[in-house]
Amino acid sequence: MERNDKIVIIGVTGYIGAWIAKQLTDMGYTQITGTYRNEDKAQQLQKMLPNVGFYKANLGETENWKEVLSGAKWVFNQGSAFNPHDKTFKDRGRTKEKGIRMLLQLAVESGSVKKIVHTSAESTIAYGNEDSSKTTFTEDDWTNENREGLFDLHMVSKTMEEKAAWSFIRSPENTTNITLTTIHPTHVMGPSFAPWHHDMIYAMLHGDRAMADSQLYGVDVRDAAAMNIELMKSTEANGKRHFASAFKTTYSAILAIIKKQFTDEQIEAVLGDVARIIPGDVVVDLLSPCQLTAYYQDMVPRMLNRVVYKTNYPEAYAYKYREPNATVLQAMEKMLKDKNKE
């Protein structure tokens, strides 16, 4: 990428998208265009990043896309098509399929787009597996979106979307030979660049409820953004899927880090009521009658700390990841700071 190339970030007001825009700005790129859905968020972010051009554009709708993509060479896709009238997750998947196909077709028609880095998810790789003995996953694996009983049905639509993207890229419709690379973040944590984001720490730990302890893989949002940029620059990454995973931890370990550093009042200000974490082996015993279900086969190995994510492309990790302590503490500090401004 040259410093004056036109770069498009789809979903620039998002958690990772805003950090991509910030990092590209700091690196000296001068022709950054971001798309958004929410007008208020775009106006706030534009004040923080006045060098970025902003366009309102929704995947699945044609308005503004030709102008957004005109002359663009590099596209970071942080977005997905959305239809509030979808009734099932298969419906959502079909909406996302149409949205990503529309984007890729418009990119071809632009005549200028060379490469797209599409942010997919860990959930398109490592779930819905019917082989109970399989506990190691690489980028060669795919979630079975047709498996009954997936514990998080967002996996269905995200997997359908990514498969549609690869199908288009490898088809005769890709007449300009656009290159696709996908990035698959695990649990994304860390301080938000914009004030409206709550990271996975909030999603995982807030609420007056009981939850099973489990292993999880995580990545700092700033590292996820940096990896997006590294993958865009790397020709070795072309045509490949890439885990974005920095560390392996547990829910209880994250909560312990927080309780050691912050007061009860600070924790309540950010998380409200905090979930009660039950040891994983205790929950496994309770779930023993459910051994044939997808939930059991996906989650019990994680509760017992047996699942391994192994990247096929370690060379893609071109920088040093942050450790979980720094990620968790800086995320909490930022959420507290944003709370105090409300």
Automatic annotation (TrEMBL):
Query: What domain of life does the native source organism fall in?
Result: Bacteria
Asked if the keyword Methyltransferase belongs to this entry, the reply reads: no
Q: Name one Pfam family in it.
A: Epimerase
Keyword annotations of the record: Oxidoreductase
**Could you tell me which residue ranges the NAD-dependent epimerase/dehydratase domain spans?**
7-203
Q: Which InterPro entries match?
A: Epimerase_deHydtase, NAD(P)-bd_dom_sf, NAD(P)_dehydrat-like
Q: Which family does it belong to?
A: Belongs to the NAD(P)-dependent epimerase/dehydratase family. Dihydroflavonol-4-reductase subfamily.
Q: What is this protein called?
A: NAD-dependent epimerase/dehydratase family protein
Q: Which organism is it from?
A: Paenibacillus filicis
